Fold these 3 entries.
Entry 1:
Amino acid sequence: MTRAAALTFLLIVLAACGGAPGPTSATVAPTPCSPNVEITGFSDVLDGREYGARRTWPVAGLSGLAVDRDGALLALSDRSVLFTLDPRTREPTSATPLVDGTGASLDAEGIAVEGDGTRLVTSESDVAVLRFDRAGRVEGRLDVPPDVADRARRNETLEGVAVLAPGGPVVAAMEGALDGDDPGVRRFVTWPGAGWTYRPDPGLDVSELAATGDGRLLVIERSYTSGVGNTVHLALADPARATDGALPRTLLADLGACPSLGATAQQAQANPLLDNVEGMTVLGRTIDGALRVLLVSDDNQDPEQTTRLYDVLVRLPPG
């Protein structure tokens, strides 16, 4: 079997396992972005969509992804709505509005699911992680320590959240630097624990975290430059090797180096496949051990941006 035929066979197997994206305009066979990362397809099935009967919500501003206990996909809108997606078609099947303990909407950014189904949602305005039950009712909150929360900059607070291991610590990332910190350093807050510092590539902020299942964290770093477009890096952090509270980091790929797969963009993008990638979750593993990862871009409810899903294979370096 040729290498091309083997790759085609692998993609067919993944599709049969329910990992295929929804409708896509990809017309070019995928090739790796780096030795560790390959975007195998993309889908614009959610772009411009609305969902609901008596009340309609735009399926937009998606900033977080997670897999529920039953295998359904959860997509979090920063407009305080949690959508459930069919894991095969990626179509929305339900919508749950989220409010905090006072009944106010959230500036929701990241989501993770604990073993009992509890949803952990970061709120950028509250600078906290809120716990919700499956019906969308608030069950509690994880507050950021005052020495971190009091120095957080507006609109640069909590973004990604992950459960590092079953029953293990919850980790949430600050998007930007704290007042008084080295401007190149970001704080990762943990419950329990003292947290860590993390240094993304220069000029990039942290937008999302996902646990790899072996104690490490995938990290999305990104920025936007007008007239140029989005820069999106996928990195790996290893808490087990932290020194003096600093997380070691390995760059896995600059997603701008990935093939465009025939994608188009309405705004200027060096790679038309990219947009404002903010959400990420791990779907599972392939038969050869690669992580099956799903990314989503936040369109900021801007008609010149795109809500796009990306299916990604990530081959982790040895731990």
Entry 2:
Amino acid sequence: MLRLTFGGAGLDTFRSTGIGDEYLRLFFPDPATGELALPVIDETGRWTYPDGPSKVRCSTYTVRRFDPVRGELDIDFVVHAGGVASDWAQRAAPGDSITLNSPRGLYAPPPGTQWQLLAADATGLPALSRLLEQMPPGLQTRVFAEVIDAAHEQPLATPPGTSITWLHGGNGVAPSGLDAVLRRVPLPAGPGYVWVAGEQKVVRGIRKYVRQELKLPAQCYELVGYWVAQHDWEARYEALDPAIRSRIEAAWESDRDPEEVQDEVDATYELVGL
């Protein structure tokens, strides 16, 4: 994990949501030409790509820390070979600039929540860490964090009523144990909340458990796929039958229940091996 601290006048207008898992997009210049391609927001609020989407080099990252007084923003990068963001972060030096957009947070336990279950792999550790640091007192919390091995464990805040279990595996080097472990955890009585961040297929399995077996209402969970294990996922998606891609895209653009849409899209991805 590599932490970079950003500063400068460009952060004067940055407004944090204050939510522990808030995220933003970083836009990177082309390493060969130095040119920066950005999307354009149309009148409906959607992104359009005048130069084509392949020209826009961006990645989504958690705001690990924002200090408005010092004008500093920290972002933790999982270092790996061949990633646009990872490569840039390892080359970054004082004076380099980056473009980012406004943040958005997802973590939102309903009022009256008595317990919560938090789980993440290495990519979710920055958000998990900040959530624990901002945890309200008295909330019973079980935490499961999965990293490659013991050397990758990090110090985490442990508010009263919180227990933390480290798992070793997953993260693109071994099968993940998060899904199996969460299914075995005895859950307390009363209203609860489940928050998970990790690899897309792992989160997909956990989502089945939360929706189909626990039958939690949508406001009682936030399950986010932070990355995809298949390096050729985008190419395989583009190679799908155009009718399948159109059906997926139409589902996302519809006004249907987003959770039902996610169920349908997940089922389609599983059917075609994505």
Entry 3:
Amino acid sequence: MEVAIFGATGQVGRHLVNQALLKGYKVRAFGRNVHELNDNNDDLTLIKGGVFDDKDVFDAIKGCDAVLSVLGGSFDGTDKTRSLGIKNIIAQMKRASVKRIIALGGMGVLDHPEGGLIIEQPEYPEEYIPVGLEHQKAWEQLQASGLNWTFVCSPDIIDADPVGNFITSADHFPDGARTKINSGDIALFMLNELEVEAYPQQRVGIGMV
């Protein structure tokens, strides 16, 4: 298995890189500051590039089996990395004939039990709305892409190693879960989903128990 990881130097990205290598995958780690990663592994290729650059993204994806996207950015609505970045990743995946993508978003785009999305509810924190709208745009682009996608919709992320104490649910936040999750557990779930494909063309709610 060979995977391209976008956002490889972030909280979740670093765990994805390390866990994928432990599984024996070949990893292409993409980002602006990938030199921060330890590259003393023959199965790891560091690719310095910009997610808005067609050639950079295409070259990173071509020949891979799947893409893992954990793009980050600011929370104030001015940073379009999440929406425009995934748009370019989708376009270059089509050029490269790569079909499988697992991407990270936020729980605001999950369905609310009373209808609509969580982000549309009056009690949704106002400060999270700009980044939530970015996640919504990313999800909408995945829906329209024709790719085999899964959109992991996380609550607040704790920068910590995986412990496995989480549950998941399709399209909704899982009953009984706490609105927090370790970054290492998000990576653990994403790599497991890559193998088992339990949530094709679906959003996934995830949270600690």
